[in-house]
Specification:
Elements: H1 3-16, H2 18-64, E1 67-72, E2 75-81, E3 89-92, E4 95-98, E5 101-108, E6 121-124, E7 130-131, E8 144-146, E9 153-154, E10 168-169, E11 175-176, E12 187-190, H3 193-201, E13 206-208, E14 214-219, E15 225-230
Parallel strand pairs: 2-5, 3-6, 5-7, 6-8, 7-9, 9-11, 10-12, 12-15
Antiparallel strand pairs: 1-2, 4-5, 13-14, 14-15
Helix pairs in contact: 1-2
């Protein structure tokens, strides 16, 4: 039977018995809904769950660290703050996971947080080895920084112009670039030889503080007063 003939036959049946045709169409619609409605409902629930999970992942990233990373040669370095982060506290982990792989974080990259006025406190986990040049340059509201004992180098201008930065404990094995703290009114404390080298390179006289510990009164290139105290305590009260 050709298509035209089938169409003519169907139209004739509708004309002869419109009520019967309506009942058949209604029955077919009911069967269709019985099959498709659960599938549609399942798809909607799945989409809603995915949406909730995506929001949860974004919230967890925002609450945990809000930090972006660059992976290169099997290790990761800190690249900066994520776009969604507005947290005043930044924690830099020593390991991250991406696509199921685990990467060791070794460095805070150059200029990673420069001019980030929202940051007031930073904690860097054990395992980080280097803070790059200008990493926290001009973080005008940065007040507290915790540096791990694994740290080996603080780059040029890493904490320059951090005018509110309080005392900073310098790990014993951390080399300090002569310009690392330029323009920051802060107190550096520690007992490692690199802290003494830092004072020597800047030609700073050593005096004694009220507790008898060696102390260096320093003036940066920006003529902001720095006090560098070299004390035997590992983590002094600042």
């Amino acid at each position: 039977m050709s298509f035209k003939a089938a169409l003519a036959t169907g139209m004739q049946e509708i004309w002869d018995d419109p009520r019967g045709f309506y009942d058949k169409a209604q029955a077919f619609q009911d069967v269709f809904h019985n099959i498709c409605d659960p599938i549609r409902k399942l798809n909607e629930e799945t989409a809603q769950k995915k949406k909730i999970k995506k929001k949860d992942r974004k919230a967890r990233r925002k609450e945990s660290d809000g930090v972006k990373f660059l992976i290169k040669n099997g290790t990761a370095r800190v690249k900066g703050l994520s776009c969604s982060s507005n947290s005043s506290y930044v924690e830099i982990p020593s390991f991250i996971r991406k696509k199921g792989e685990r990467y060791r974080v070794t460095k805070v990259g150059n200029d990673a947080f420069d001019n980030e006025s929202s940051i007031s406190a930073v904690s860097i986990d054990e395992g980080i080895e280097e803070i790059g040049a200008g990493a926290f340059y001009l973080c005008c509201n940065l007040q507290e920084v915790y540096l791990p004992d694994s740290l080996e180098y603080i780059g040029s201008g890493a904490f320059s112009s951090c005018s509110k930065l309080r005392g900073v404990y310098i790990p014993p094995n951390a080399r300090i670039h002569p310009n690392a703290f330029n323009g920051s009114n802060t107190v550096l404390r520690g007992y490692g030889r690199y802290l003494k080298d830092y004072a020597k390179k800047r030609g700073l006289p050593i005096i004694r503080d009220e507790y008898g510990s060696p102390q260096v009164q320093a003036y940066t290139a920006c003529h902001v007063c720095d006090t560098l105290a070299i004390t035997p305590a590992r983590q002094p009260n600042l």
